[in-house]
Amino acid sequence: MERRGQRRVIDQPAEPEVSFVEIGRILRKRRWVIAACTVAVFGAALAYTLTDTPRFRATSIVEFNKENSDSLPLDDESARLGGAGAVDYSVTQQTQVNALQSDTLALQVRTN
Q1: Looking at the whole model, is its pTM more than 0.90?
Q2: For residue 96, is it within any domain?
Q3: Measured by CB atoms within 10 angstroms of the end CB, which terminus of the chain is less buried, N or C?
Q4: 35: domain range?
Q5: What is the structure's pLDDT at 82?
């Protein structure tokens, strides 16, 4: 019989020690299984990446404004009536758009 307050000691077999040499031997023995699993996982990830449809698309808007853009050009009569200032702005804006659409800029962006 067991008395209260006393603990019972159970003898358990000691866990076997595992050495690095034994781990290396197991890994060498199973290297083809490890290689096959690695190739299968990377192959499945590559197949999923190439066949999955893209979920996100980015667009951007570039806005050109005059350097001194007043909301209402009350001081300049020719600007209000669409005079030479408006033509100059239109030409400047078209020049900037053409520069953004140029192949030279695309190559510079791609290389940077």
Answers
A1: no
A2: yes
A3: N
A4: 20-51
A5: 54
pLDDT, greater one: 84 or 22: 22
pLDDT in tens, 37-95: 999 999 999 999 999 988 877 777 777 666 665 555 555 555 555 555 667 777 877 88
How many domains is the chain partitioned into structurally? 2
Would you say residue 64 lies in a domain? no
- Reduced to 3 DSSP states, what percent helix, strand and coil does the chain have, rounded to the nearest 5? 55, 0, 45
From CA 25, how far away is CA 18, in angstroms rounded?
A: 11
Residue with tokens 């510079």: 108
Residue 6 belongs to a domain: no
pLDDT at 4: 65
Tokens, residue 45: 């990830």
45, part of any domain: yes
Residue 20 CA to residue 79 CA, distance in Å, equals 84
CA distance 98 to 86: 18
**Ordered DSSP codes for 59-70:** --------TT--
